[in-house]
């Protein structure tokens, strides 16, 4: 017999995964949290211009990795660490390999596939995983795509490891 969930059970489910990722280039470990539906919608909306058309690939790819990392990097309490455009730009100046490691986990936890990234950036040859940028300072609701490279799953909101 199938056990169907009620609306209350769905809404009460603690389902946003969190994973600790070692980043030796930065001297430690960071915490990456998957995006909620609202956060992913906001992240994807950053790829649409004021005319409601997709941004050109050169603009969509600008700071992509930093944007997705900023959307998903949280402190130990689960609060977003990077919120301003300036912080995202500074984050984009960090080591590309380290940033990509974070992005890969962020993408996976947020359900962003390579195809999603290609669609968002309008560039199938660029950025198989990573994040994109708009001039919007609110990266707190913006997250990431793809699979983990060297990360260790430590926890999820539901307590699973």
Describe this structure as you would to a colleague.
By secondary structure, the protein is of the alpha+beta class. It has helices at residues 7-12, 37-45, 57-60, 64-72, 85-91, 96-110, 114-121; strands at 17-23, 28-33, 73-74, 152-156. It has a four-stranded antiparallel sheet. A hairpin with a 4-residue loop joins strand 1 and strand 2 (28-33). Helix 4 (64-72) packs across helix 5 (85-91). The two termini are 28 Å apart. Mean pLDDT is 78; it is low at 125-161.
List keywords for this structure.
161 residues; alpha+beta; four-stranded antiparallel beta sheet; 4 strands; globular
Strand content: 5-15%
Globally, the shape reads globular
**Whole-number radius of gyration?**
16 Å
Q: How many strands, which pairing sense, and closed or not: the largest β-sheet?
A: 4 strands, antiparallel
The chain-level structural class is alpha+beta
Note the gap between the termini: 28 Å
Enumerate the spans where pLDDT stays under 50 for 5 or more consecutive residues: 125-161
Instruction: Give the strand line-up of the largest sheet.
Output: 3-2-1-4
Averaging pLDDT over every residue, what do you get? 78
Q: How many beta-strand runs?
A: 4
Count of alpha and pi helical runs: 7
**What share of residues is helical?**
25-40%
SSE run: HEEHHHEHHHE
């Amino acid at each position: 017999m199938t056990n169907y969930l009620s609306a209350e059970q769905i809404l009460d489910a603690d389902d946003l995964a969190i994973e600790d990722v070692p980043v030796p280039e930065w001297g430690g470990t960071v915490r990456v949290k998957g995006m909620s539906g609202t956060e992913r919608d906001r992240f994807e909306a950053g790829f649409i211009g004021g005319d409601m058309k997709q941004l050109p690939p050169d603009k969509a790819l600008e700071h992509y990795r930093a944007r997705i990392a900023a959307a998903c990097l949280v402190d130990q309490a689960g609060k977003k660490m990077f919120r301003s455009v300036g912080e995202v730009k500074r984050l984009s100046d960090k080591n590309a390999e380290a940033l990509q490691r974070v992005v890969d986990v962020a993408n996976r936890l947020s359900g962003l596939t390579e195809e999603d990234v290609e669609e968002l950036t309008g560039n199938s040859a660029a950025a198989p995983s990573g994040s994109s940028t708009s001039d919007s300072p609110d990266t707190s609701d913006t997250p990431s795509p793809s699979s983990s490279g060297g990360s260790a799953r430590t926890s999820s909101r539901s307590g699973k490891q």
